[in-house]
Design brief:
Strand content: 15-25%
Number of strands: 16
Bound molecules: histidyl-adenosine monophosphate
Structural class: alpha+beta
Oligomer: single chain
């Protein structure tokens, strides 16, 4: 019986995996130039970590977590996001005992949410994210938003809209929540069941509701900007002016609250500027109390995360046929048993020079080997037949120009290395 993949999961194969790898490499390089070090935390954590951080009123905790009891009866959750784990690790390892604040970490890896699968929405997906913990000021907030923008540029996504909002400070937020409560009290009986629950737990969450019939009530709701304290307002303005200084355009969206409960202050999202909206490419925000809530000291932080699946989708759409499939440097076409024997050792030597090399280990016709070399996007086909064996030489064919040369086996590695380097130079790579 065939066993199907779990709903909402997907296999990443071959050329698509190359694209994931390119994006992840760009992510690491971007994090590196901004001074971030990697942090790798477990995929499984104790469930209360997420309940306490992502929040009891969030959709993630109420509906989307993969939670199970392990054999020791512990409640374990597959991480739905990576901020909570990174901050837990900062507490566990006392990383905050450092003179070098802010702590700056980036992470890459799979996350799990039991959501309804649709375009750009999976049950297992991958995130790249960063967290800067320990220094609170507008520069830190702005720099994180800039990092996200530069990362998108580095993977060729320039047509991106950044939405930004502030959830204000403690006083602003509690005044605003009170105003929302008063406003929604008049409408909540006509709204969806989720909103009824949100009304009790955290009325801010109602603003994130995606149900069409609820939209009119949400549009007319009080706006955060009218409840900001002078301090919160000027902090937000400072972040925006720092972004402007670095030519980062943002759009203020006063309905943006984000789906996780730990945010305070600035929140933001990156969207692809196209009609085909698959949801935010990434998002993040400032968190004042998160570290303290999970047992650490009173240090604030800011971070963001991108969904790699969504980035791959957009990059693929943008590039169309222009996606450069990684190919082989060399494909060795061994035309008979003796040639297969010889090529077996030659391949090993060439690979030790860092060349990517493949070739046939079973007999095949010239025509079919040639087709394989082309399909594998090979730079040079190396032909070894009867004559080549006799003369101790290799025939080298550039599959782009079709030019053919003959080289001595003894000098092959050095010559081929130079040929591949010249090829790359001509391609501008
Ligand atoms: P988030 O907005 O929940 O934030 O997720 C970040 C990104 O992950 C989203 O913008 C989206 O691209 C991707 N994503 C989320 N759910 C799915 C899904 N089901 N399928 C595919 N992609 C998805 C966070 O996770 C926060 N931890 C970000 C952050 C870091 N805030 C502060 N630091």
């Amino acid at each position: 019986m065939e066993i199907n993949p779990v709903k909402g999961t997907h296999d990443i194969i071959g050329e698509e995996a190359d694209l994931y790898d390119d994006i992840e490499t760009a992510a690491k390089l971007t994090a590196d130039v901004f001074g971030y070090k990697e942090i790798r935390t477990p995929i499984i954590e104790h469930s209360p970590l997420f309940v306490r951080s992502v929040g009891e009123s969030s959709d993630i905790v109420t509906k989307e977590m993969y939670t199970f009891l392990d054999k020791g009866n512990r409640e374990i959750t597959l991480r739905p996001e990576m901020t909570a784990g990174a901050l837990r690790s900062i507490v566990t390892n006392k990383l905050y005992v450092s003179n070098d604040l802010p702590l700056k970490y980036f992470y890459l890896g799979p996350c799990f949410r039991y959501e309804r699968p649709q375009a750009g929405r999976y049950r297992q997906f991958h995130q790249f994210g960063i967290e800067s913990v320990g220094v609170k000021n507008a520069y830190e907030d702005a720099e994180v938003i800039i990092l996200g923008k530069r990362f998108l540029e580095n993977i060729g996504l320039n047509n991106v809209k950044i939405l930004i909002n502030t959830l204000g400070d403690q006083i602003s937020r509690s005044n605003y929540k009170a105003a929302l409560k008063e406003y929604f009290a008049k409408h909540i009986d006509k709204m969806c069941d989720d909103c009824k629950r949100r009304f009790e737990l955290n009325p801010l969450r109602i603003l994130d509701c995606k149900v069409a019939d609820d939209k009119p009530f949400i549009e007319d709701a009080p706006k955060m900007k009218d409840y900001l304290t002078t301090e919160a307002k000027s902090y937000f303005e400072e972040v925006i002016s720092l972004l402007k200084m670095n030519d980062i355009e943002v759009e203020i969206d006063d309905t943006l609250v984000r789906g996780l409960d730990y945010y305070t202050g600035v929140v933001f999202e990156y969207h692809n500027n196209s009609e085909n909206d698959i949801g935010a490419l990434g998002g993040g925000g400032h968190y004042k109390n998160l570290l303290k809530e999970i047992g650490g000291p009173d240090l604030e932080g800011i971070g963001l995360a991108f969904g790699i699946e969504r980035l791959v989708y957009v990059v693929k759409n943008n590039l169309g046929d222009k996606i450069s499939h990684r190919g082989l440097d060399l494909y060795i076409m061994a035309m008979n048993k003796e040639a297969i024997d010889a090529s077996f050792h030659i391949k090993d030597i060439l690979r030790s020079y860092g060349l990517s090399v493949d070739g046939n280990n079973e007999s095949k016709s010239f025509k079919s080997l040639f087709k394989i070399a082309v399909r594998k996007n090979t730079k040079f086909a190396i032909i070894i037949g009867e004559d080549e064996i006799k003369e101790g030489r290799l025939t080298v064919k550039n599959l782009k120009t079709q030019e053919q040369t003959s080289i001595k086996v003894d000098d092959a590695a050095d010559i081929l290395l130079t040929m591949v380097e010249n090829y790359m130079e001509n391609e501008g790579k």
